[in-house]
Write a structure and sequence with these properties.
By secondary structure, the chain is an alpha/beta fold. The protein is built from seven helices and 13 strands. The termini are far apart.
């Protein structure tokens, strides 16, 4: 049977990977994915790997679907959860626009822990109330649209998870986003920078909107921005707890 498994590897080590994802990885004959994500998967005898660059998601999906349609057991790996700014949407897009045979492929999407959830768990419950996730990458959507969404979400009282904050090709967007958020939120609003969460080089910084510096972020960073109601609880000899109350003021 033609089959493609799209597998969320979670934010880092295998300890945060689901048993379902591990089983799908073990059964695949061919692995496709962005090179650094494939590097997280242990090598298995007889299993071939097909790495590709970060900005060729649709071509990667098409390549995997092509060999899956020929009867190979194929897995597409992606960091975090496949449906959160990752490969599941690219695979669905490829199926929609591709040959009719691709619609008959047995497609299984295996969820994973996202960077925002792993970072939130490290620091308390900053996403404890209503929240939304936005990508600051303007590669696939215009920057003015990102600005409108940021302003609307912050103004409506949502905590924010910000993905893809900066890259070499996009050095200024995070600074612009923080400046916009300072117009919408109190400058004392907690902001959390989480780099490489759940990996050996993990680094977490808890600060305020007033002090947040875009130079603290890279493409391995996820940011969490609280609301006007998000609280910071100091603790002796321990990092503070950050949480957004479940109950919101009118």
């Amino acid at each position: 049977m033609s089959r493609l498994d799209v597998i969320g590897l979670g934010p880092g080590g295998a300890g945060l990977r689901t048993p379902e994802a591990e089983a799908a990885l073990a059964s695949a004959a061919m692995l496709f994915g962005y090179g650094p994500y494939l590097d997280r998967v242990p090598h298995r005898p007889g299993q071939s790997r097909h790495p590709s660059d970060n900005r060729v998601e649709l071509a990667r999906a098409q390549a995997a679907l092509t060999v899956a349609a020929e009867g190979a057991t194929v897995a597409m790996v992606t960091g975090g959860d496949p449906g959160v700014f990752a490969m599941a949407a690219a695979v669905c897009e490829a199926i929609e626009s591709g040959p009719p045979a691709w619609r008959g492929i047995d497609l299984a999407i295996h969820p994973g822990i996202t960077a925002m959830l792993a970072l939130a768990a490290r620091t308390g419950a900053p996403l404890g109330g209503d929240f939304c996730a936005l990508s600051l990458s303007d590669n696939l959507k215009p920057w003015p649209l990102i600005e409108r969404r940021l302003a609307a979400a912050a103004g409506a009282g949502f905590a924010l998870a910000l993905y893809n904050p900066v890259s070499r090709a996009r050095p200024w967007q995070l600074g612009a986003a923080l400046a916009l958020l300072r117009e919408q939120l109190p400058v004392a609003t907690p902001v959390i920078f989480g780099r490489a969460v759940a990996r050996p080089d993990e680094a977490i910084r808890i600060t305020t909107l007033a002090e947040a510096d875009p130079l603290w972020a890279d493409m391995a960073t996820c940011l969490l921005v609280g609301t006007a109601e998000t609280r910071l609880v100091p603790r002796d000899s321990r990092p503070p707890l950050v949480y957004t109350p479940r109950r919101a003021a009118q």
